[in-house]
């Protein structure tokens, strides 16, 4: 069995011999408040009697009253003041509206066969003169027509199939575009004379308005 140790003493409990040497010494003994022990008042290796309210602590402090002294609070760690609050955001007349309040533009809706129309139009620009505009109609046929512009049937399943082939980089997609261009040239040839006459009528109508 080891020697009896007496607590309430820092940095570590003392046995009977150590306690006797403390009583026989003459150096000051620090009183360590239990509420601030090992926090901001003292270091972990501080020496002295812990004022923890126990009978041993009270007896030691009574015996060592002439040499006991409380540690000064000058050893406290400096308190860091909290950071100041951020300055208020200025408000008032003349400030631009937040971006979140601005209306968001609606996304542009692209017709499923738009890629087919663009491919045919680009190829006709290289091969055919004069040039005509293009337009997608909400119809199932005819697949290609003409009414002041080259029209495409927006609900024709064949045009949708060609559009899917273009998106998939199918090897037959270009052959289908060539066939559509040939058909479009036929439509344009049939409407050529009528278009010229209609163009003259339109110009005269604009001049007379």
Total helical segments: 5
Secondary structure class reads alpha/beta
**Total beta strand runs:** 7
Q: What percent of the residues sit in helical stretches (DSSP H or I)?
A: 25-40%
**Strands across the major sheet, in which order?**
1-3-2-4
Report on the biggest sheet: 4 strands, mixed
Q: Alpha-carbon distance between the termini?
A: 123 Å
- The dominant shape is rod-shaped
Strand proportion: 5-15%
Uncertain segments of ≥5 residues (pLDDT<50)? none
Overall pLDDT score:
75
Radius of gyration: 49 Å
Order of helices and strands: EHEEHEHEEEHH
Structure description:
This protein has 209 residues and is of the alpha/beta class. The protein is 38% helix and 12% strand. It has five helices and seven strands; from the N terminus they run E-H-E-E-H-E-H-E-E-E-H-H. It has helices at 16-24, 55-63, 114-127, 157-167, 173-208; strands at residues 9-10, 29-33, 48-51, 68-70, 134-137, 144-146, 150-153. The strands form two sheets. A four-stranded mixed β-sheet has the order 1-3-2-4, with helices on one face. The longest helix has 36 residues, at 173-208. The termini are far apart.
């Amino acid at each position: 069995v080891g020697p009896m140790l007496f607590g309430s003493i820092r940095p570590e409990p003392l046995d009977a011999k150590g306690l006797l040497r403390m009583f026989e010494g003459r150096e000051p003994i620090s009183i360590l408040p239990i509420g601030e022990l090992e926090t901001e008042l003292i270091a972990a290796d501080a020496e002295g009697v812990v004022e923890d309210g126990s009978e041993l602590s009270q007896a030691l402090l009574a015996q060592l009253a002439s040499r006991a002294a409380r540690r000064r609070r000058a050893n406290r760690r400096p308190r860091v003041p909290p950071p100041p609050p951020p300055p208020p955001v200025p408000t008032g007349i003349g400030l631009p509206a937040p971006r979140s309040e601005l209306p968001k533009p609606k996304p542009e809706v692209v017709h499923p066969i738009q890629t087919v129309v663009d491919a045919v139009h680009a190829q006709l620009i290289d091969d055919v003169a004069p040039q005509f505009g293009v337009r997608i109609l909400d119809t199932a046929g005819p697949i290609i027509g003409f009414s002041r512009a080259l029209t495409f049937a927006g609900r024709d399943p064949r045009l949708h199939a060609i559009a899917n082939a273009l998106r998939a980089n199918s090897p037959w997609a270009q052959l289908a575009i060539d066939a559509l261009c040939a058909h479009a040239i036929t439509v344009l040839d049939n409407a050529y004379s009528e278009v010229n006459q209609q163009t003259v009528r339109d110009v005269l109508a604009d001049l007379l308005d």
